Every structure is written in structure tokens, then in C-alpha cells.
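pasting for ref
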Amino acid sequence: MIDLLETLLDQDPWIILTVAGLVVFCECALLVGMVMPGETVAVLAGAAAALGRTSLVTVLLVVLASAIIGDNVGYAVGRRVGPRLHRRVSNPGRRKRLAGAEARLRLRGGPAVFVGRWTPFVRSVMPSLAGISGMPYGKFLAWDLLGAGSWAAGSVLAGYAAGKSYEQVVTWFGTVGAVLLCLVAFGVVVAWLWRRRTARATAAAAESEPADA
């Protein structure tokens, strides 16, 4: 896939921008679990700008707009279609990650939308999951603007800074997503243990009150 995408660097500006916009948009707008190389294309588009193939400002605007519009379409599809989207994911590994994303969304809400934008696969399902869960649109939009904005700027600018060395940047972004996912998972476990401990302490205190009276 990366070899095919590399041909973007030799294309006309309108082709670079069109491919980048469509791939970033479709990653979150079409189907739950449809993994597309949105991050790779965003980095490549930034590298193309560094090589003088197109304008950096234009690439930033196209990738940012495509990410936000794609996420909002995914959210709308989740609100309309609902749980039927889950049946589109047949891979066991992806179904497991989908269940994990749902759990984080229920527990963390908005921050899960932000982290999901930086996490491979989760990026393609989080908007629709937010719609399925009934998250208020205003809340989703605020966190999505933060996540999509930082992701788009980070991906494009990293590709621009790397130039022809963009492959290492693509690998680095995958590592960042994995680290963020681990941090969120750790936070979920800590929060669950804390709530469980607090509930037990409350229950023990309630049981001891009659005896003290």
C-alpha cells in the first residue's frame, strides 16, 4: 500500500489534494471498521508540500476539513443506523477493539473521541459509536474539533518537516496512537478499581451504622 501511495508525490497538485481529502473523509464516513490509510495520506500530502508539489496551507485546510466532515458524517450515520453497523465488522480482532472503544466511550465520553482520532482503527469507528451512544452533538463536535484539528495539523506538519523521510513519521504516528490507547486503557482500569473500592467502603460504612446506633 505504501508503495502505491508514494506515487502521490509525483502527481499534480489537484490529484494530491483530491486523494488526500477523499481518503481522510472516507476513513470515518463510510463503514464501521473500514480501515483506510488516512494518516499515511495526510503525512504524504505534507511531504508533497515540502517538496514543492503543492501548498502547505492548502493541504492543511483540505485534510482538516475532510477529517471534520468525515467524522460528522460518521456520527450522523451512527445516530440513524445504530447497532446494525456492528454487524459490518467480522474480523474477531477488530470486534474486540470495537468493544474496547465502546467501553472507553461510555466511561470517558468526550476524551475518548479525542484519543480515538489518534488511534488506528478506533479512528474509523469512534464517530459512529458516539452517534450510537447518543452523545450530545455539541459535546461530540467540541471534542472532535480538538482531536481532528490536532491530528490533521500534526500529521501534515510532520510530513512537511520530514520531506522524503516521511516513512519514519508514519511509523512514529502509529506508535503514538498505541501509547495513547495504552494510557487510556490504564486510566479506565484505575478508574474502575477506584470506583469499586469506593463502593465497597460506602457499603461497609452503611452496614456499620445500625450497629453503632
